[in-house]
């Protein structure tokens, strides 16, 4: 068998290919990390949104509003003479 000498350009091509492969792999790892970070932030935002929805529902509850009216504004249940009733009347127009 004859000894074959590998041309220099083959070594150069292998080095370029190896560097390219490492560069692509590092970009994949970096991009995957960024995607995971964004997914974590999205999940955190969803959780915070759910907490805020629950808080809003609590603040809008009649019991909470009544408590706030009593404590902060000094309101109380109206006396019977303070209640005004409106009746529907049909207008002839």
Strand content: under 5%
Helix content: 55-70%
**Major sheet description:** none
Q: What is the strand tally? A: 0
Topology, pairings included?
Blueprint: H1 8-60, H2 62-73
Task: Describe this structure as you would to a colleague.
There is one protein chain. The chain contains two helices and no strands. By secondary structure, it is mainly alpha-helical. It has helices at residues 8-60, 62-73. The model has no long low-confidence stretch (mean pLDDT 90). Helices cover 70% and strands 0% of the residues. It starts with 7 loop residues before the first helix and ends in a 20-residue tail after the last helix.
Provide key terms for this protein.
single chain, 93 residues, 2 helices, 70% helix, rod-shaped
